[in-house]
Amino acid sequence: MDITWTDFHLDENIFYFHNADLKSLTFVLDSDTKDNFYLNLLTKSLANVLDAPNDHSMVLAVPGKTNYFHPKIPAFDVKYIDNCIKINDFPDPTKYLIKNTSTANYTKDQIFDCWLHQNQSWSDLVSVSENQKNSGEDSDDIFSINLHLATTSLSGSSLKNTRIPYSHKEDVSIVKYIIKNKYAFNVNVVSMWQRMEHDNVCKYRSWQSMKQRYLKHIKNDLNSKKHSFPFLTPKKLQILQQGLRYGKKKNIDREAIKLRCNKTRNFYGSTTDSSS
Predict the structure, then answer these.
(1) What angle is formed at CA 165 by the lines to CA 161 and CA 171, rounded to 5 degrees?
(2) Which CATH architecture has domain 26-116?
């Protein structure tokens, strides 16, 4: 295998392969370099490397040079690892999928839910058509977690500047917290989100990230006819929806007041100029 990073040093290029729950991500290497470059890289990056695929593993191979095939577990271009480290993030894995290694097609969210969040297994996933797969992806799924990898050892405070997609479990935690504490009408109040961060509602998520997640993504889910929060009673759902409308109305009122103030200021300014 040709390695494009001739000046790559493991000690200088560390990207920890774990999820928001600090669970190590799992890989299977269908092929590697003679000096086991990717095995050493993944091991140093706190990943688990297995000999055979399991329910949450990502199989890595070289396109055109692999005989790997599995009906439910596809293989991905090994360059996915390179790009994770290059951009310090998890790019869309569907762009690295080696199509002839499996009959199944999965969306980005399905792959992340299985491999990254480990909420589902490969056997749980239902393959989708190519058209559905390419129908568009929600860019709001990815937010900064403000992770800081200060040392080569992993600790709670070492997680900064790694972008990991939100899981449904985290969305549920945010909604349940708002309901439990009766904060439905405070979703535009900064102190509420800061308290949520202090209470560790979503580990390693900043209050800004959780606020943005709720107001840009969860809001649309709550207002849809088929929301993904079955634990909500009709009354609680109505309260959350009213809180979102109330916050929007407050923003509109605030803008209206600002506009009136500007008009008044401009009027008096022009009067003063003409009188002088």
Answers:
(1) 115
(2) 3-Layer(aba) Sandwich (3.40)
